[in-house]
Amino acid sequence: MLLVRLLLFGVLVGAAFCHTRLFKYGENNGDEVIEHSQASSALHLQVPVRFYEQTFNDLYISPLGAISFDESLDESYDEALENVGISAIAPLFARSNGGKIFYRSTSGDGDLLADMSHRIGKHFHDFQPSHAVLVTWEGMTKEGSEKKNTFQLGIATDGELSYVFMLYPSLEWAESNEQFAQAGFFHSDGRHQLMINSGTANFVQMSRTSNINSDGVFLFRISGEVPEDPRNENDDDDDYNYTDYDYESSDNKHPPSVVSSAAVDSTVDSNNQDNRVVPEEPREVVEQPQVAEQEIPEGQKDERITQAGTCAQAEEPCNQNADASTTTPDSVASAVLSTTVMERSAWPRMCPKGSPASSPASSTATR
């Protein structure tokens, strides 16, 4: 009887701590390897990537955790990326001093294209990629610490539509050189959208949240006026809660995330003095951990989207080859995306009624 209980406990623990499944990478999968340095590596694309309304044929891979278009970010590691004037996508931009970068740009890797197409097809319709770019930052370290970050960025494109994945299987640090990691989408004209917890110590929680109910995985369509969350494609009755921020008038360039415990349908009232949304008819939602909203300075303009809760059910099965690591289950904060121009978007899907909140453990990438 004791043996049965132990086996059952092991099964339950294994199910609760499901690992983020990275796209296959490494030299055995056709990747090129970049040893860590402070210089970016240029990559010419066989099929152009459309980012915002522009089309790009060249990108630069930064060892500091970002890709940029047409010019490198080599001189920008101490600046807020929204002020640099370079179009870029940053899964985790921070100064580092060790690790490896794997990348490939391919139109012939049928397995990678099929994998991306399958994952995208669950959330967006009528898209078949003809080209993919995959960049994996493995075991990135910072000065004076043995902690490591592993994360991945994947782009799928057909020359007209483009989608991006950001995957975070294992994050152990968020601050380097007295600056917190930046993450988001940045256009050279100043438009930008910041990921949840960008510029905060809570960035390590990215491995435990998602906008597609798959812990540590984020997906966006990037070929439009603004990067688009997949829930806009599938749902007309999403729960929203908007709050405006003005980074230029704030001492904190990346304010802490604001999490609402109950999401409701609402719209921004431009005449509202503090630019907060007044909920109308709250929906019945799964009970979530209560997180106090922080006061917002008057006159702030940028929108921050808030949503409570994530789901335990992962989009993909666990990586059977991943190295398991043990962490203490915690309630997972909901995902938040701050934006300067976004009029309508959504964050992680609420847990289905009766579904527990997820608490996966971090894992080390497996190639």
Helices and strands, in order, run as HEEEEEEHEEEEEEEEHEEE
Calculate the terminal CA-CA distance, rounded to whole Å: 38 Å
Radius of gyration: 20 Å
Tell me the number of helical segments per DSSP (H or I, 4 or more residues long): 3
Characterize the biggest β-sheet.
9 strands, antiparallel
Rounded average pLDDT: 70
Structural class: mainly beta
Helix content: under 10%
Query: How would the global form be characterised?
Result: globular
Q: Domains counted in the coordinates: how many?
A: 1
Total strands: 17
Low-pLDDT stretches: 1-18, 236-293, 299-367
- Placed side by side, the strands forming the largest sheet appear as 2-3-4-5-12-13-17-16-15
Strand fraction equals 25-35%
Protein name: NIDO domain-containing protein
Organism: Steinernema carpocapsae
Biased composition (Low complexity): 257-270, 355-367
Keywords: Signal
Structural features, described:
The protein is mostly beta strands. It has 3 helices and 17 strands. The strands form 3 sheets. Strands 2-3-4-5-12-13-17-16-15 form a 9-stranded antiparallel β-sheet, with no helix packed on it. A hairpin with a 2-residue loop joins strand 10 (175-176) and strand 11 (179-180).
